[in-house]
Amino acid sequence: MRVMVCGKGGTGKTAITVLASRILSEYFKVYVVDSDESNILLPYFLGVEPPKPLIDYIGGKREEEEMERALPKIISALAKAREGIRLNLLPKEYIATSREGISLMTIGKVREYGEGCACPFNILARALLSNLKLMEDEFVLVDTDAGVEHVGRRIEEACDGLLVIVDPTIESLETALMLNETAKKLNKDIWIIANKVTEDIKEALLGEAARLGLKIDGVVRFDRELYISCLRKEPIKSSTAINDLREIIEGMWRIKV
Ligand SMILES: Nc1ncnc2c1ncn2[C@@H]1O[C@H](COP(=O)(O)OP(=O)(O)OP(=O)(O)O)[C@@H](O)[C@H]1O
Ligand SMILES: [Mg+2]
Question: Which among 10, 42, 178, 200 is most buried, taking Cβ atoms within 10 Å?
């Protein structure tokens, strides 16, 4: 399964990706694809050294049209297996593996002022995800950049479903509404998780989501331990949030306990 984690900026996409990858790694070989071209924190939160970006593997970033033209070559460079791209066959320096056995890959980062847009990264992400040859015991989680730019770049088409993260704000619910429409149009699965929820705000949030016609699949509570570990740029520590998420994921994706 290839699941894209998306939603408004700061809702907890990266944190939930890390926690979900830990939970899923008990059942699957998990690959996390970092397709956020601006944030650099995912490796720290996962507890690994940043791997070399995949954009380097295909010879670096090029103009958008040139990338589109070179797509067949890019795909064959990435695909060592005849059936498609097997993630476990990519060169080791492009994969960082955590203590739990979670493998992280990074598409590329916009680091310099005036470097131009992130479109080439999105083209590479789409090419990678849509040509993957996944084994039954492999699970791919894609951590995306904030908002809906990736919708414009059609990365969703290359995934099996969208995991949308909302927080207790109307802005994040509005983004979820847009992503809901996208999923419907593309005939993809969609799950929505409300994150950073406190007891005093839960009812209002769920009420507003229902009023907008959003089905919330689960609630992850605000977790102070998680918050502090993120603040310190450390591997994420969590007990409350990961327990909430475990229950949600096991039910949502019918994973055996
Ligand atoms: N369940 C939670 N409890 C407490 N704090 C949380 C929780 N989830 C996320 N956070 C906090 O919210 C901050 C933003 O989370 P995160 O970086 O995962 O969001 P994001 O959606 O990936 O942001 P961006 O759009 O910038 O990529 C984290 O630094 C962390 O402090
Ligand atoms: Mg993030």
Answer: 42
